[in-house]
Amino acid sequence: MSADSQAERTLVLIKPDGVQRGLVGEILRRIERKGLRLARLELRTVDDATARAHYAEHEGKGFFPSLLEFITSGPLVAAVVEGDRAIPAFRQLAGGTDPVDKATPGSIRGDFGLITQFNLVHGSDSPESAAREIALWFPES
Ligand code: RTP
Ligand code: MG
């Protein structure tokens, strides 16, 4: 176990495809087995404004409209996950963005994903992103 002073926080989403396919328990199990902790956990359906703010870096890209439609299409799980190097540790668990070309077997996307958009999970990609996203999803924390 690492000292609390080394704990890092990351924003994790189990996207609507993961909830719809019944993979919430499987994904949370992998997070916990890795040794990461759940600090916040909530099922919610998000509006367009939240989805747009979350993925602001992708505004203007070809996939942006369908990404917004997908993320708002049904309930998702939002979580704050913490632990030593939580940001890269969860990105490792998730695997690369494309579930076939980039994510390796053994990762969440590599094991359960097929189509890039429907890649099951989101994890913050840097400390700056994590701070911004945690403030967006859990403003009271
Ligand atoms: P995320 O932000 O969701 O954790 O995923 P990521 O960092 O691995 O990938 P990113 O480049 O940030 O893309 C955000 C999400 O947009 C969807 N996407 N679709 N070509 C496509 O159809 C395409 N490219 C990206 C995926 O859901 C991706 O995770
Ligand atoms: Mg990203």
Overview of the structural elements:
With 141 residues, the chain is α+β, with helices and mostly antiparallel strands. Helices cover 40% and strands 20% of the residues. The chain contains seven helices and four strands; from the N terminus they run βααβααβααβα. The longest helix has 11 residues, at 24-34.
What descriptors fit this protein?
141 residues; binds magnesium ion; NDK-like_dom_sf; nucleoside diphosphate kinase activity; ATP-binding; nucleotide metabolism
The main sheet orders its strands as: 2-3-1-4
Mean pLDDT, all residues: 96
Major sheet attributes: 4 strands, antiparallel
Give the N-terminus to C-terminus distance in angstroms.
24 Å
Helical proportion, percent range = 25-40%
Any idea what the shape is?
Answer: globular
Question: What is the count of helical runs?
Answer: 7
Write out the distinct hetero groups bound to the structure.
ribavirin triphosphate, magnesium ion
Given the helix and strand composition, which structural class is it?
alpha+beta
GO molecular function, one term: ATP binding
Catalytic activity: a ribonucleoside 5'-diphosphate + ATP = a ribonucleoside 5'-triphosphate + ADP; a 2'-deoxyribonucleoside 5'-diphosphate + ATP = a 2'-deoxyribonucleoside 5'-triphosphate + ADP
Subcellular location: Cytoplasm
Protein name: Nucleoside diphosphate kinase
